[in-house]
Amino acid sequence: MSEATDDRGEQRVDARVERTRRALQQAALELARAGRFDEATVAEITDAAGVNRSSYYQHYDDRDTLLADAIEAAEIEAVAGLDVPTAIPTQLPTSMVAFLAHFDADADLYRRLLGERGSPIVTARIRGRFQAQARAGVISSGTTAFEGLPIDIVAAGIAGSCLAVVQAWLELEPRPSVETAAEWVWRVLVGPGEPL
Fold first, then answer.
1. pLDDT digits (tens, 9 = 90+) for 97-120
2. How confident is the model at residue 85 (pLDDT cuts 50, 70, 90)?
3. Which of 28, 129, 134, 168 pairs as cysteine with 158 (C-beta 3.0–4.6 A)?
4. Phi, psi for residue 42 in degrees, rounded to 5
5. Exposed/middle/buried for 129, CB within 10 Å: 0-12, 13-18, 19+?
6. Prediction pTM value
């Protein structure tokens, strides 16, 4: 069995299962960075991962979910060890700069994934992570600026705006610095007035 429960009754993933998933995700990410993921066969993905085809099908029903998991893992790794605020801070957090540096390092990949012909699953997952952060920040800030609006609507609006800024920044030539983009996202996040 690939999953078991710990002393608290929570599921934990077998180390072998996690290694296989990570290998598949890393292979998908490398193929996507090279612009070859869309055309890659399952055999090419599993060869690059060093696993067999049956392992692929044990873990993934489709390629888009594999790529979305790979992107999510890379984003989590990009901010690992950083202090990611749960509330809206009073100034631009360093974690936002580090997060956008990750987008900058893989700008070609993110332009493809977030573009018109990109991956709806990857885009939805990124928007979802933005939305969760926005929701937590608005709740913990105690602001009354959005009184009367459902929190999920507020968070969706903030997340959509921030993602749109990131997408527009990635398309610019020449692309402004990560610090400039972080400032843009920050300004959209806190609005035209004083920080929340």
1. 988 999 999 999 999 999 998 999
2. low
3. 134
4. -60, -40
5. middle
6. 0.82
